[in-house]
From TrEMBL:
It comes from candidate division WS6 bacterium GW2011_GWC1_36_11. The chain crosses the membrane at residues 7-27. The keyword Transmembrane applies. The keyword Membrane applies. Keywords: Membrane, Transmembrane, Transmembrane helix. This is DUF192 domain-containing protein. It holds the Pfam family DUF192.
């Protein structure tokens, strides 16, 4: 067998192994598709993100220090239902703020979540009523309900470890810096 044929077969073999591993374990974020369509989609996403208002919240901790978190709002039933589902990454000081019309004690769950999170529950006055740390995504066989100790009006979901890293406790409060609420 010639050296060129051996090289060709070796390359085919390596590509086949790579394809098998990628299709099985999704190690790399690789998309095969129309590059023009991807460029148009990315351009549209960039346009959309520049027109969205920048919302943030400030958590005042018990030690009278504050922590600013950039938030995406979930203030409609559909947005609350979707939540952070399918997100693979959340910045260190980014999160999602769930806003309800009145205080509630509805349970949360981690269906379709990709990352573990901390959850901070606030009442209508902005005071922390409960904290749930290191909530893991659902598994194929286990998906518990997450229920706050008291009624809440706002829930902030952030990366797991955020609460401990920033010394947030139940004597803290929330300050909203929100441009619009639905």
């Amino acid at each position: 067998m010639s050296n060129q044929l051996k090289l060709f077969l070796y390359i085919v073999f390596v590509v086949a192994i790579f394809w098998f591993i990628q299709s099985r374990f999704h190690i790399f974020d690789v998309k095969l598709g129309d590059a023009q369509q991807d460029t148009e989609t990315n351009t549209q996403e960039n346009i959309d993100t520049t027109t969205k208002p920048t919302n943030s919240v400030e958590i005042v901790t018990g030690a009278n220090t504050s922590v600013k978190v950039n938030v995406e709002l979930a203030d409609t039933a559909d947005e609350r239902r979707l939540g952070l589902s399918f997100k693979k990454y959340l910045g260190d000081y980014d999160g999602m703020l769930f806003v309800f019309n009145t205080e509630t004690n509805a349970p949360f769950w981690m269906k379709d979540m990709q990352i573990p999170i901390d959850m901070i529950f606030f009442d209508s006055q902005g005071f922390i009523v409960d904290i749930k740390e290191a909530q893991a995504p659902c598994t194929a066989t286990y998906c518990p309900s997450i229920i706050a100790k008291k009624s809440y009006m706002y829930v902030l979901e952030v990366n797991s470890g955020f609460v401990e890293k920033n010394n947030i406790s139940e004597d803290g409060s929330l300050v909203l810096h929100i441009e619009t609420l639905n």
